[in-house]
Amino acid sequence: MKAAIYLRVSTDQQTPDNQLPDLERLAAARGYEIVKVYREDETAWKKGHQRELQQARQDAYYHNFDVFMVWSLDRLSRLGPHAMFDIIEDFWNKGITVVSPQDSWVESDTMMRPLLISVFASVAKWESDRRSERTKAGLARVKATGKHIGRPKGKKDGPDVHRKRSGYFKRWENKKEMKFGTL
After folding, report:
1. 4, 102, 135, 170: which could join 36 in a potential S-S bond, CB 3.0 to 4.6 Å?
2. 87 with 57: CB under 8 angstroms?
């Protein structure tokens, strides 16, 4: 059977290489041929949302592999049960088995599987939300002490850095519409 591996990290300070050995061992033990490794080397929220996962879903449409391997289901999504089911069912509907060494129950075809996926996805979302709350609380505490948060005042990018400005304008337009209504 042909297998694809999906690796993802949560922050820029992590490496997906920690996930790969477990997946390679599992593939070897089951006799899977690894045909593609999809890697998200930075947080899913930068430079487009999980481009490699979207590519894997597109490749699944063409049946480029039979098994989709992920170290843990929370690598697929932390947006809750709906998002998790959307991703997993997309593979299942194409006849592709989702395999996870950390969450081996995802392969069982029992009535408990949807319940476990819902619970697991809810916990992953809760964990992500709590981490965000702690980060915001820490930033608020630092800001309350009078310390500046973010780029040092007066600091400018070097000549090689070109920032995309469309995001600023889009936020400005959205704020304008919310304040004054559609123009």
Report:
1. 4
2. yes
Inside any domain, residue 96: yes
What pTM, to 2 d.p., does this model score? 0.65
**What secondary structure letter does DSSP report for 75?**
G
Q: Are 89 and 96 in contact (CB under 8 A)?
A: no
Residue 154, pLDDT score: 63
**What's the domain range around 35?**
2-126
- pLDDT digit string, tens, across residues 11-51: 666 666 778 888 899 899 999 999 999 888 766 555 456 78
Q: How far is residue 164 from each of residues 36, 99, 168, measured CA to CA in Å?
A: 32, 38, 8
How far apart are the C-alpha atoms of 71 and 18, rounded to whole Å? 10
Residue 52 belongs to a domain: yes
pLDDT in tens, 74-98: 887 777 778 888 888 888 889 988 8
What is d(CA 78, CA 53) in angstroms, rounded to the nearest whole number? 14
CATH code of 24's domain: 3.40.50.1390
- Is residue 146 in a domain? no
